[in-house]
Every structure is written in structure tokens, then in C-alpha cells.
TrEMBL record:
The lineage of its organism: Bacteria, Pseudomonadati, Pseudomonadota, Gammaproteobacteria, Lysobacterales. GO terms for molecular function: DNA binding; transposase activity. Residues 28-116 form the Transposase IS4-like domain. This is DDE transposase. InterPro entries: RNaseH-like_sf, Transposase_11. One of its GO terms (biological process) is DNA transposition.
Amino acid sequence: NLRHEIVEQLAPGDARIRMPVSPQARKARPELPSHWQARLIEVSVGGRLRRFITSLPCPHTHPAHALAELYRQRWEIELGFREIKQSLQEGEPVLRSKQPALVRQELWGVLIAYTLLRRWMREMAAHAKVEPQRISFHTASYAIVNLLAVPSLDSAGTLPRQLAALLAQSRHFVLPPRRTERSFPRVVKNRASKFPTKNANQR
């Protein structure tokens, strides 16, 4: 449903395009032009055609395949944000502090904790001979945090041995291969209303 016209075909699946600016945008910003140019990239992912629009015009400095890979990495970053919110923070607000300095401190604490967990999960992935994304963040982070948080009856010097024992169990944290053919539309859930639903007899 993308309305556009091709200005220049750079390569198969790579073109500069011209698109109209919406009337709503021009009404709010009269200084906007009637059209704007971008670059349309079409790649096949898992046998399905994917289309990306970018403002990076040069195919030599920014090849189409490299931009498609960056988009895939961007999706992994979004999954990382979800892991922080849902698993690491257990659904609680990520930032609870009220003062700017404490907000920065809390944010850095969350990012450091996430980075350390991900680094250890990379070790687990190498031990299990799988990609790091195949290690379940929810179960692995729960096991690692519990190992560090629960006081042990042994001395602190036994922590390396306990971590090594956890590493030996890496295969239990491996997820099934990701189904690349799955697709989910960008939609939001219906918000439940506190008011009763109107029936046919009501006007």
C-alpha cells in the first residue's frame, strides 16, 4: 500500500523513490514540500519479500544487504528492551527514582546488570554450541540472579565452582530454533472499558 514512484533504479531491489507528503502533515506544517525522496530496499527473508525505507541514499557507502542486516539487529535490540522490562524488572517500571541523578544511576545499574547477564549467557551459548540468542533470557537470568542473591552456606570462594556447575547445565537453557516464517502485525490490545456495553434497546 506504499504510494510511490521510482526516481532511479540503483540495483535489483534497490531504488530511490518519490512519495507524497500527506495532506495532514502539510496542513500542520505548510512549509513542507509536496513530495519527499527516500530509498526503498526489497530483500527476501525466509522466502518472503521484505521492504525497507531509509534516508541513506548511497548504495556504495550503505549497501542494501548491510542495511537489511542492521534492521535485523535493530529487532534484536527491541527484544533486549523487552527482556529488561519483562524479565529483569519483572514487569515493574524500569525507572522508579524521582531525581535526575538517581534516575541516571538506576538506569546505569539496569544496563550494567543486563550486560553482565548477557555476557555470561554468551559463555553458556558457547558451551552449548549454539547462537547466544538461543539461550532463554528469562530462565537463565533467573538462575544466575538466584545463584548470586541466595546466601550460600559455603564460603564466597566457592562461587566460581557454582558458576562452573551452572555453565555445565547450559543445554537446559537452550530454546528451540526460531521460526523465521512467523509474522506479527504492529497492533495494540483493546483497552478494557470500565463502562457497561450499550445494548440494542439503548439509544
